[in-house]
Amino acid sequence: MFVVSVAYFLLLVSEATVVLDVNTTVGESMTFPCTLTIPATAALKNLRFYWQDKENCVLYSFNEGREMPNHVHKLYRGRVTAFSQEMIRGNVSVKLNNITLQDNQKVFEAFASVFESGGTKRYTVPHGKICQVTLHVAVPYKSVNLAVHEESMTADCTTKRGFPKPLVTWRFQHLYNKSQHLLDPRDVDTTAEQDPEDHLYRLKSTIEISGGPYQSVTCLIHNPTLNVTLIATHVLNNSEAEWSLPGWAGALIAAAAAVLIPSCGLLAYHVYRTPRRARQPSSSPDTGML
Ligand SMILES: *[C@@H]1O[C@H](CO)[C@@H](O)[C@H](O)[C@H]1NC(C)=O
Ligand SMILES: *[C@@H]1O[C@H](CO)[C@@H](O)[C@H](O)[C@H]1NC(C)=O
Ligand SMILES: *[C@@H]1O[C@H](CO)[C@@H](O)[C@H](O)[C@H]1NC(C)=O
Ligand SMILES: *[C@@H]1O[C@H](CO)[C@@H](O)[C@H](O)[C@H]1NC(C)=O
Ligand SMILES: *[C@@H]1O[C@H](CO)[C@@H](O)[C@H](O)[C@H]1NC(C)=O
Ligand SMILES: *[C@@H]1O[C@H](CO)[C@@H](O)[C@H](O)[C@H]1NC(C)=O
User: Fold this and answer.
1) How far apart are CA 150 and CA 240, in angstroms?
2) Which end of the chain is more exposed for a tag (fewer CB within 10 A), N or C?
3) Which CATH superfamily is domain 145-242 in?
């Protein structure tokens, strides 16, 4: 009876994988937290754990009291450190330094086991996946430029050298009641280009402004990974005339851009997808800005 319940407990422990998403910026370091319940009698030489990505490239490996740097894949060599004083408490977190866009969307998994000393490898904590971390990497857009062209009655909003592709929203403020009005994405013409070398985006978004009871026009550029929004506002030279927004359909400029990501062993093209536009006013599924 006792043996059965202990076995059941270990099964539960081995099956509980802690799943986490972490977002960071290129060049930064990030600790992937992970802790396992370790028996009080265990020593470091009874511990084995390793971290690897979904392509089985190893980030960090520890076995019987020693780091195993030879197991580490070149993608991660010299970039990953663990916390040796913490390990005996079951803290098998690792820190990835100098994060690059190549690390974006990688899923890192930690596997661990604890076994008894001596010749026979009897596990006190069976081998299992205990943690999973998905890494989202961004490059912040530094500035947004909003230009209003009175001759062509257009406004464009531009930004560049960021990642991933930003989400654009246009907002008007009414002259009299100060209420705000979001522009329908179909009335926005947005093009985003990705640099084939460094994968950074440049974006231009254009709308028509044919005058009207609006006090100002605002362009919002949102980085979904950093959850940061850059805002530019232009105060319009109002005429008193009533007007309505032009109804021309915005061009659909979307599509996932291809990013070259070296994978383990060979080079492979992965289609990189940025998430669909979120929190926008309603639009049919196949039209919109992004
Ligand atoms: C594990 O160690 C890291 C590095 O010292 C620390 O930041 C983290 O808080 C520790 N986690 C736990 C659960 O103690
Ligand atoms: C990141 O890489 C640069 C050189 O590319 C190096 O000078 C720096 O020490 C690295 N930082 C870390 C935290 O590894
Ligand atoms: C503000 O005024 C505009 C145009 O005059 C109108 O369409 C809009 O509904 C008004 N908003 C509010 C909150 O009253
Ligand atoms: C992290 O980045 C992902 C991918 O861009 C995004 O979906 C998610 O909302 C971000 N999380 C936070 C907390 O900003
Ligand atoms: C983004 O930040 C806003 C506050 O600026 C917050 O309300 C929202 O929950 C955040 N979104 C995510 C996905 O974390
Ligand atoms: C503002 O609008 C008025 C009336 O439409 C026009 O006469 C004036 O030249 C405009 N000013 C600028 C700076 O465009």
Assistant:
1) 16
2) N
3) Immunoglobulins (2.60.40.10)
